């Protein structure tokens, strides 16, 4: 009997008859059973299936809870005060509730990415058909995360639906455990949070692989083009369409409309948040520069809207402020909502005539429209911008005060400091106003960059001062100078790049991968990201960026006028800076580690999560940094990395995620692994020291990154390189030799060459190690020995002689 | 005498308890009474005026857990015992009676916070408040709700005077 496959079929005898088979029940399972795919022990794992691995991680990395709220108000028994780890009416204690709260953040973020993916898939399948092939560039392992987690090996965008169905079921099961009267153990909530993180990465990969395959985005290209970046790069003389959000599908129709009608020089198109990044990737395949501009992350939303520059705003989903319509209405800036997730109460005009919609928006009869027909979005957004621009210009529509108004506002401040108390970053607003009263605007200008643009200060001001507007008014020069460049997102790392670089990563001769991701809720300002990336790149780390972090580090230039993207090339090799793309492109960062296990180490991938995660944790020196993490999505991304054994550092605001996973280096029994060759238990250094933690300052974070790229598999050369950076960064930024540097020394060959004598001396005098000074060798002292062929694993079942 | 308890405005709450506003002399008394007090400094301690006072406190024999990059301020201070530690890790270790402390002689019975970002130290102390019996005192410029006791929100001048008074009473 012949096999029925998906696709379109015609029957010769019957004219005009075509049968479409969307999916065949059991086809995927059949494929997974075939010899082609050697499936590991956990394809499509449910909540319990990787629990042992999670408990393995959690036994070393303990949850540290820092509640944002001591109370639980989930059910009508409460609310309950859980402070001091008390139990509530349902029996849940503070630890378990905090773990539940963290899980809720993770699955909220995962749902945002996955629902984004579902929407994109609907759109792309309708436009390109389910049989459109997945094409991510030079890669045999096209969907590493999907394959690792589910065991599936999708070939077409239609195949991605199965992976997404799995994601959606898991998310529902996880969400159900939030309900009162379900899980009671903190540790099991933690395992579920890690499960949610893993699921998130599947959802992200579905989203980005689908759009890369269909929308002409770069496919694992080393040298992509550039996009202009920053508020200062927008030509305010032209009609401007501003897009905000993460889902590029509707926006591509605006880009096509502008292109098809030859309006590139007439209309300015720029975006905020990840939609703008994906706009810059759209049809940029082949090293083309972007046709649109990237304005910045969410911190710029309110600031840019109030500047009055945009003439029409198009929103889709995620990271869009809830008050966009209210703010835009004040400035006669029509808003077009293009996604069911954000509709702002606007009338659905999807079936209306374009002329009517344009007329209603230009005249101000309606403040905006819900428009789910994307072809209409393209035309309406562009035409409205062009027609409303002269009207708005004539009426000088800006929220920023005039010079006279500005002076009046400055002098009306009573310095009650309520604004500072309310400011999430606790900025010195009152002091800045005091300086401004004396004619010195420097204090206000200094606030422009670190201000996250939330506007909370204005809501508590007893004098109703529009504080944000005064900051922006005084910062006009700085804003005009905000002109940077971002390298267009490249998508995955290619298989040839992994083949070339894998050995350096596993042996440690490339000191590590620093993945800088996340949003703009920084400790000090956007320059934080630039400083960290530049330092690590100079030290030959591979720096991979995505999303808002990718934007913010492109805002700054060195003394030669170059951004980091222009200074450092974009190949996956030491000392290179790679922008993978938008928020959902974060999946390519995790998938790089999976590819190293698959391509370099020839590990089986399909459905083999635990073994691959174990490989990554013990061998690949990668550290994530979400320095400005703000949303639930960032906690989901971090948790997905954590389950793969990749540690993540978040900035000080990240402490509000409520929980960290931190090891205790002094608890010696926690820092052992098996040697897979014989099952012997061997001690390792206490790295990674955490799976998720915070750092207080940029200076603190740099040695933390270097230390947490150290891995048990480092060879002597690799360990020497990593230790050199750890010691140098600690001395440079903290002023001291690290307290624990000796814990990473296995033999004299691990010591930094230039400091070998000095360090041997310290080892002898301060730590009591025995040194043979004639041979400059360590005779005794280290708690672990270096063995080039050791095979570190946390999984006893992988040891020789164990049943697999 | 400085009034360090003014302006304890609460904009959002963590729960049913908030730090007790406290005067510098009382802080000094509590520190003196403690067997193993620990001063935890953050990156903002590097402000010249604050650092000078943190060093003075250190010279009174109080160990310093230098979080963030605050260690750079104590490198040349030979009469001060200061060691770098990450603030979040410290929150975990403080809850562990088996931790040997920065000097290898055991855990602490009182922590005092200075030079931190308000939102960050509030979170760290939220963990300490809920999962340990440790008492904490904030001598920051801002009112830190999750400490056991805290100065109010002070202007810089008052803050420095409050720290001076505390040091004089130690």
TrEMBL record, chain B:
<dbReference type="GO" id="GO:0019385">
    <property type="term" value="P:methanogenesis, from acetate"/>
</dbReference>
<comment type="pathway">
    <text>One-carbon metabolism; methanogenesis from acetate.</text>
</comment>
<dbReference type="InterPro" id="IPR029035">
    <property type="entry name" value="DHS-like_NAD/FAD-binding_dom"/>
</dbReference>
<comment type="similarity">
    <text>Belongs to the CdhB family.</text>
</comment>
<dbReference type="InterPro" id="IPR003704">
    <property type="entry name" value="CdhB"/>
</dbReference>
<comment type="subunit">
    <text>Heterotetramer of two alpha and two epsilon subunits. The ACDS complex is made up of alpha, epsilon, beta, gamma and delta subunits with a probable stoichiometry of (alpha(2)epsilon(2))(4)-beta(8)-(gamma(1)delta(1))(8).</text>
</comment>
<dbReference type="Pfam" id="PF02552">
    <property type="entry name" value="CO_dh"/>
</dbReference>
<comment type="function">
    <text>Part of a complex that catalyzes the reversible cleavage of acetyl-CoA, allowing growth on acetate as sole source of carbon and energy. The alpha-epsilon subcomponent functions as a carbon monoxide dehydrogenase. The precise role of the epsilon subunit is unclear; it may have a stabilizing role within the alpha(2)epsilon(2) component and/or be involved in electron transfer to FAD during a potential FAD-mediated CO oxidation.</text>
</comment>
<protein>
    <recommendedName>
        <fullName>Acetyl-CoA decarbonylase/synthase complex subunit epsilon</fullName>
    </recommendedName>
</protein>
<keyword id="KW-0484">Methanogenesis</keyword>
